[in-house]
Amino acid sequence: MVKKEIESLRSLPNRNCMRNCNQEDRTSITEEGICKKVSSVIDENIVRCVGAWSDEKIHWLTRYFSIFTIGMRKKWNLNYIEICCGPGRCIIRESGQEIDGTSLAIINHDFFDSFKKAIFIDNNSDSIRVLNKRIQDLGKYAIAEGVVGDYNDIDGIKRILSDMPSRCLNLVFIDPTDCGIPFTLIEAISDSLVTADFIINVAMGTDLTRNIRQAILEPRYNKVKKKYARFLGSPDYFKRREVIAAAKSNNQRRMRSLFMEEYKKNLSAIGYLHTDTEGVEHYYELLFASKNYRGLDFWRKAQKIEPSGQKRFDF
Fold first, then answer.
1. Taking a C-beta distance cutoff of 8 angstroms, is the pair 233, 183 a contact?
2. What is the mean pLDDT of residues 70-88?
3. Whose C-alpha in 54, 129, 186, 227 is 20 to 30 A from the C-alpha of 178?
């Protein structure tokens, strides 16, 4: 990530972080990703434990946020919605550096005050309590608000979104740790907000890579299979001959490619014809989806600058 972006994330060393903790250690010292041993060096409140790729994810999100805002703020009132927002501050477990997470990166963004309203949703009440305290401390409470909500509770999410200002263009970022988001959530948000672009963090290299082959071939993984079918919006993926063939030959790349292809097809069926992805190392795929080609054009402009600050020449 380029120097200016690192500075904007208020990066500081947290010397209490044990660093490079393994999966077993993380299981014992975190709960829902929140570290139970370490507090923020800024305000002594809770922090989320994240991997080194997190600042790359923030780079792509904030790059799009900038271009989206510049392109649309004179034509539309703008809203921002983030689901799975966390408490706002994170610690990178490999380095022990503490940074703003996606929610505070957006709230502290130079263009944030161009927005009419921003809602940050998480099912962890402690995360929302702390995020709201951080929003208050930053003086952004007139625009931003954290709200407790579960993405599995579709009616609950619709009630939260009913408070958003109408006749606005909405940017929706959804940032789960697995492929557990129901497709009905995407449909409900689209119906509720009418004009919404999505950036969805899809756990292609973690959750999906660990489980997809077994979900395709092994009946004892039926619960996982149902989760993925719920994410995709239908069980059709698991019936496709090429999917079964890829599973039998253990072709992970092909299984993941067909999974994303199926997801994009189902998004297209509800009007999201313009989609694209950006990898976050080998862990995640950020999926962009819009009903308007202009959104995709903004997304591709955002991709022209790498997290390192280098320009891309293949766009």
1. yes
2. 96
3. 129
